[in-house]
Amino acid sequence: MVITLTERMTSSMALPETSSSFLDSSSSIRPWSHDVFLNFRGEDVRQTFVSHLYHGLDKRKINTYIDNDLERGEEISAALFKAIEESRISIVVLSKNYAESRWCLNELLKILDCKQAVKQIVLPIFYGVDPSEVRHQRGNFGKSFDKLGDQLKDNVKMLKWKAALEEVANLSGFELRNRNEAEFIHEIIQWVDSRIAYHTPLSAAKYPMGKEISVQIDELSGKKSLMLPARELTIQWGSGETPEYWEWIPSTESPVLPKSRFSEVARLRKVYWLDIKGRIEKKILSPKTKYGAYFIYSMVDGFYGFHNPVKVSIRLENEVEGGDAINAYLNPRLWSGTHEQRSNEELLQIKRQDGRLPIRREDMWMEIEMGEFFTGSHVDNRGEVEMCLKEVQVLHEKSGLVVHGIELRPK
Question: Out of 17, 43, 74, 107, which one is annotated catalytic?
Answer without folding.
Answer: 107
